[in-house]
Design goal:
Helix content is about 65%, strand content about 0%. By secondary structure, the chain is mainly alpha-helical.
Length: about 150
């Protein structure tokens, strides 16, 4: 059975366009916004979303705010999944690189956490994390509405 046809709001397409023109690959944009690759490419061709038409910013002035919502734990998880995919595909050298990247990202995330929570007890850390989770859930609910009932 084919996946159902998905209609996306123009707001999502505008974000996808901005992400693509800022330098993300078409595949990354589609994963980030849950878009079909062929639909994205069709729309990009139709509306002329070409990076070559964009003014190249001077070195050092590239806007990296596009990546603010991505954290090290998520990147490490993605690298671990790519490692598993490479192992299962029999690509040993790819697997070795993904494993090294996952290990490096995990170490960086742990070092950041240790620095961020320095001087706090385990209970204070847990309370702080729970507060952060609650804030994220409240923001999501305000933006997306309440989660569906199970």
């Amino acid at each position: 059975m084919t996946p159902p046809y998905r209609i996306r709001e123009s707001r999502i397409w505008a974000q996808a366009r901005a992400d693509y023109l800022s330098g993300l690959s078409a595949e990354a944009v589609c994963r980030r916004h849950d878009l079909g690759l062929s639909a994205f490419r069709r729309r990009a061709r139709k509306y002329g979303w070409r990076r070559s038409d964009q003014v190249e910013p001077p070195p050092g002035e590239i806007d990296l705010s596009l990546y603010e919502d991505i954290d090290l734990d998520e990147l490490a998880r993605t690298a671990r999944l790519r490692f598993i995919e490479a192992v299962e595909g029999g690509r040993a050298s790819d697997a070795r690189r993904w494993r090294a990247l996952a290990d490096d990202l995990t170490r960086e995330a742990r070092a950041f956490d240790a620095d961020f929570f320095r001087g706090m007890s385990r209970e204070e850390v847990e309370a702080s994390l729970e507060g952060m989770r609650r804030e994220i859930d409240e923001e999501d609910e305000a933006l997306l509405g309440p989660p569906p009932e199970d």
